[in-house]
Known about the structure:
35% helix, alpha+beta, 178 residues, 11 strands
Amino acid sequence: MRKVLILLSALWPATAGAAPDGxxxxxxxxxxxxxxxxxxxxxxxxxxxxxxxxxxxxYTDRNGAKRDxxxxxxxxxxxxxxxxxxxxxxxAKKAGIAYVVCYAMVxxxxxxxxxxxxTSGYAFASLDHQGMPYHVPYAVSxxxxxxxxxxxxxxxxxxxxxxxxxxxVNARTRKAAQ
Length: 178
């Protein structure tokens, strides 16, 4: 892993200030829709390969209080945007959403924002319709976060959003078949 970071650092020169060519700055002030999606200048963006907790889904904190899982994901994304001022680049566009990859400078390290969110336990690897991760390294990071009980994984009733989304799709399929 360290070799990969060194190689990426050598290939991707550090910049002070503005984002490098092909990238745009993700700065505080965007409208966050969730812990993985935002609107800026009337355009929707979503982190590629990431699924945040769904807003309106609940988990029970250590004091027994019910908390909104999606709001927790959103708050952590907002904090990373504020603290690291990431730079992003579009990798695909579909249905009016630009899917982006972003990097954040943490100290002298350039880190993948999606990976930061997933390893901290406040986002998940997004899965395709067959249940396979869009980006396998994110699934590995998710497993690491779950094993370490990082972030939302420390709470026993947190569910992977893919489980909830698949249940919703299955319910719609059954209803349409009736």
